[in-house]
Design a protein that fits this description.
Helix content: 25-40%
Largest sheet: 9 strands, mixed
CATH architecture: 3-Layer(aba) Sandwich
Strand order of the largest sheet: 1-2-3-5-4-6-7-8-9
Number of strands: 9
CATH superfamily: Alpha/Beta hydrolase fold, catalytic domain
Number of domains: 1
Structural class: alpha/beta
Shape: globular
Order of helices and strands: HHEEEEHEHHHEHEHHHHEHHEH
Distance between the termini: 12 Å
Strand content: 5-15%
CATH topology: Rossmann fold
Length: about 400
């Protein structure tokens, strides 16, 4: 059971800058082109490291030949919040983001909070084709406006098509296989990073370092597939936190101005909801990853409630005491009931399954609206209601 005695986390944080202030300070300071970033008024700093993805799966997927040319996806930089008082020199926290996120802004204050309250470095790792792993033009409004106009002309009934989601929507409509294959590449990269950290090949960490994981939104689904397949027991000693994620695919609703439009979501949904019933003779090269690969088989266990129930629930039960789930009661994108159905009743009743609800109109894509100063006090309390217990869980 998670203890409720976490008031000291709140007290310590209230003596420093507010969540609002931290957000704006870090957004203005953050620069991935720098090697180190000092944060005024804080003993915690940011260091930036380089990563090279092995990218093995692309060679087996000819339908993704155009993606091979996106060098940003295979060679990129990632930030680490490093507390000056690193009391746990052999511990690390991996921080993962959501679908269609193009910068780290909304997560910076959250990662810094976890680093300071746990005294562990927090590694912010971008998923495949996200954040700085995508083409620069995908976040250039002037370049993407024409693509948006063409899409609306091609699909006159499309809903929620915006400049924010046009790049992902076009890519997933063209090839819904990218949803899974990008997740598989991300999982491979994360396992590679965790092995480097464990074996002392990362400059920040000594041999034997344990990596815990905080996952938000769609990264929870990728992590669930890793928990089910768990190659080499890479997650065996990790504590894991899900926030606003962990639902079965069948209950998700990805249609959002900030995620993907209705045409893209329907394309993805049609492809994956039919994959388990596809006949072997109709299996394509991309499908074969879902059918034959351990990660693919684990991913298929997360699609619908009636398939692979024991495999799914037994895997999650094996993380008893090391898994914490924080679900938002009124989440429309990744709904509470979908998370409960995916994780099973034993996990739901374990005391590690927390349901939160905030006294303002929140949304999955933006649980803590920092641009509405009128909600400052309420957002501050909501933020602490999520991250203070998470920090204690990852510390204890």
């Amino acid at each position: 059971m998670i203890t409720r005695n976490w008031c000291y986390f709140v007290y310590q944080y209230s003596d420093t800058m507010s969540f609002f202030e931290q957000y704006h300070q870090l957004k203005d300071l953050f620069d991935l082109s720098r090697e180190e970033i000092s944060i005024p008024g804080s003993k915690t700093g940011i260091r930036v490291f380089c990563f090279k993805s092995a990218n093995d799966l692309q060679q087996e997927s000819p339908d993704r030949f155009d993606d091979n040319a996106i060098k940003e996806n295979t060679s990129f930089r990632y930030p680490v919040f490093v507390p000056a008082d690193n009391a746990h020199g052999n511990k690390a926290i991996l921080y993962l983001h959501g679908l269609n996120e193009r910068n780290w802004n909304k997560h910076l204050a959250c990662a810094k909070f976890l680093a300071e309250k746990t005294n562990k470095p927090v590694i912010m790792f971008p998923l495949s084709f996200h954040i700085n792993r995508g083409l620069p033009e995908w976040t250039d409004a002037r370049k993407m406006v024409q693509h948006l106009e063409i899409r609306k002309y091609r699909y006159p009934q499309v809903q929620d098509a915006t400049l924010a989601n046009i790049a992902l929507s076009d890519r997933l409509t063209e090839s819904p296989q990218r949803f899974f294959l990008s997740g598989l590449q991300s999982a491979n990269d994360i396992m590679s990073l965790m092995r480097d950290i464990r074996d002392g090949r990362h400059p920040l960490f000594s041999t034997g370092t344990q990596t815990d994981i905080f996952a938000y939104s769609i990264s929870c689904m990728m992590l669930q597939a890793m928990m089910i397949s768990n190659p080499g027991n890479i997650l065996g000693n990790s504590k894991i936190v899900f926030f606003a994620g962990g639902s079965l695919f069948s209950t998700m609703n990805g249609i959002s101005r900030y995620i993907m439009d209705s045409v893209a979501f329907q394309s993805v949904r049609n492809y994956y909801m039919n994959i388990n019933g596809r006949k072997p003779k109709n299996v394509t090269t991309s499908d074969s990853w879902l059918v034959k690969h351990k990660f693919g088989m684990a991913f298929r266990a997360l699609l619908t409630p009636e398939k692979f129930i024991k495999k799914r629930e037994n895997a999650f039960r094996s993380f008893a005491g090391k898994l914490m789930i924080v679900a938002m009661r009124d989440d429309k994108v990744i709904p509470l009931e979908g998370i409960r159905s995916a994780m099973g009743e034993m996990v739901h009743r374990s005391g590690m399954f927390r349901i939160v609800h905030f006294p303002y109109a929140y949304m999955h894509e933006n649980p803590f609206p920092v641009l509405n100063t009128g909600l400052k006090d309420q957002v501050e309390k909501a933020f602490l209601s999520v991250y203070a217990p998470v920090a204690q869980f990852l510390t204890g």
